[in-house]
């Protein structure tokens, strides 16, 4: 039996969004008093699967760490570290590149989305991304992986890799990790297109709400958010086929720690012209203390670097025996 251990990663690829906050950071903070060991990684090696300006990457890595801490994740209780500082990720990823099959990778929807029409010109790293993600998780023998809906397929692939490794080498070495997906806004959609997720890695989405946005920027983005002319329904079924409307109600529910049905009980019958200011007041109230704290932390980059270095040391204590034993199993 494997001890309950949580692993999750976020890419330092552009500023954190409301999607990252509701789908990841807020939930990480809420779960940290359960006594379970949690390991959170700034996955800079994933970020460089698409071009990153070096100075921007360095800054984004620190800002991401500041985002974790400002969201309430305590670097003493949880392990916060930077992926490239623990060599085991790259080592284990190579082994998993040799376990995973081409066909498995070709089925990944994120690969298809991110590579777009010009797959021949995408980096090899972007294609192999899910094998590195499997290494991130399994290097710590993590059993639970809190992710947004968008990453569920990659956790399933991680399970396939663990099963195949254990089977091929006749061992029971890697746990088969579970995705943990919960809450009203596990998938926050773009404010201008309810069929696309809000993503910090999508440079074309100027409508995304960043965790560092000020009150005016948040209000203006919510005011411009795409909706429909109908009033809000009084039950969740009334949001069927209304992706943009549903997204705004889900965001409201997640920000206020309640359910879509509870929100609609209060606001059903109102127009979006009334609901949007309520949503932006709520978003500003929840996000502005975090952005203020992020800015304060960013004034001391060396302190952030020290937190990440200490986290990497603690991560290595767990990772080193796992990679050593893996290489031994493989015969290396
Ligand atoms: P991004 O797509 O914004 O670059 P990452 O791929 O780095 O984000 O994912 C970081 C974490 O944030 C993951 O747990 C992911 O599931 C979550 N996440 C990212 N975008 C969203 C979203 N729009 N809604 C909910 N969770 C999200
Ligand atoms: Na992503």
TrEMBL record:
Task: List the record's Gene Ontology CC terms alphabetically.
Answer: cytosol
Query: Where do the annotations place L-tryptophan binding?
Result: 136
GO MF entries? ATP binding; tryptophan-tRNA ligase activity
Record-listed E.C. numbers: 6.1.1.2
Listed under GO biological process in this entry are: tryptophanyl-tRNA aminoacylation
Motif placement: 'HIGH' region: 12-20
Key words, A-Z: Aminoacyl-tRNA synthetase, ATP-binding, Cytoplasm, Ligase, Nucleotide-binding, Protein biosynthesis
Which of this chain's residues are annotated to bind ATP? Answer: 11-13, 19-20, 148-150, 188, 197-201
InterPro entries, alphabetically? aa-tRNA-synth_I_CS, aa-tRNA-synth_Ic, Rossmann-like_a/b/a_fold, Trp-tRNA-ligase, Trp-tRNA-ligase_bac-type, Trp-tRNA_synthetase
User: What's the domain of life for this entry?
Assistant: Bacteria
The record's listing under PROSITE patterns reads: AA_TRNA_LIGASE_I
Instruction: Motif 'KMSKS' region — list its residue ranges.
Output: 197-201
State which residue ranges cross the membrane.
Answer: none
* Annotated compartments: Cytoplasm
Q: Which reaction does it catalyse?
A: tRNA(Trp) + L-tryptophan + ATP = L-tryptophyl-tRNA(Trp) + AMP + diphosphate + H(+)
The family assignment reads: Belongs to the class-I aminoacyl-tRNA synthetase family.
What does the annotation say about its assembly with partners?
A: Homodimer.
Q: What does this protein do?
A: Catalyzes the attachment of tryptophan to tRNA(Trp).
**Which protein, by its recorded name, is this?**
Tryptophan--tRNA ligase
Q: Which organism is it from?
A: Sagittula stellata (strain ATCC 700073 / DSM 11524 / E-37)
Taxonomic lineage from the root? Bacteria, Pseudomonadati, Pseudomonadota, Alphaproteobacteria, Rhodobacterales
């Amino acid at each position: 039996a494997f001890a309950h251990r949580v692993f999750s990663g976020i890419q330092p690829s552009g500023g954190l969004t409301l999607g990252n906050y509701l789908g990841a950071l807020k939930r990480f903070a809420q779960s940290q008093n359960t006594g379970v060991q949690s390991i959170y990684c700034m996955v800079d090696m994933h970020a460089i699967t698409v071009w990153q300006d070096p100075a921007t990457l360095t800054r984004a890595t620190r800002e991401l760490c500041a985002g974790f801490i400002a969201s309430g994740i305590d670097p003493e209780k949880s392990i916060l570290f930077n992926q490239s500082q623990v060599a085991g990720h790259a080592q284990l990823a190579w082994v998993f590149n040799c376990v995973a099959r081409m066909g498995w990778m070709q089925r990944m929807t994120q690969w298809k989305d991110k590579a777009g029409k010009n797959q021949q010109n995408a980096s090899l790293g972007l294609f192999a991304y899910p094998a590195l993600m499997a290494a991130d998780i399994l290097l710590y023998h993590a059993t639970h992986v809190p992710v947004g809906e968008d990453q569920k397929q990659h956790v399933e692939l991680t399970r396939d890799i663990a099963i195949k490794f254990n089977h091929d080498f006749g061992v029971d070495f890697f746990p088969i990790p579970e995705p943990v997906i919960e809450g009203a806004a596990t998938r926050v959609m773009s404010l201008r297109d309810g069929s696309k997720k809000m993503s910090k890695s999508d440079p074309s989405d100027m409508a995304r709400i960043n965790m560092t946005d000020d009150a005016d920027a948040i209000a203006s983005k919510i005011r411009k958010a795409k909706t429909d002319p109908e009033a809000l329904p009084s039950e969740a079924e009334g949001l069927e086929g209304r992706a943009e409307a549903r997204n705004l109600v889900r965001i409201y529910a997640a920000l206020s720690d309640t359910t879509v049905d509870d929100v609609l009980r209060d606001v059903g019958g109102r127009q979006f012209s009334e609901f949007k200011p309520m949503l932006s007041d709520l978003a500003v109230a929840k996000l502005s203390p975090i952005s203020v704290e992020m800015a304060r932390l960013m004034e001391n980059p060396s302190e952030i670097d020290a937190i990440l270095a200490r986290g990497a040391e603690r991560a290595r204590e767990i990772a080193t025996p796992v990679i050593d034993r893996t290489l031994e199993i493989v015969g290396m």
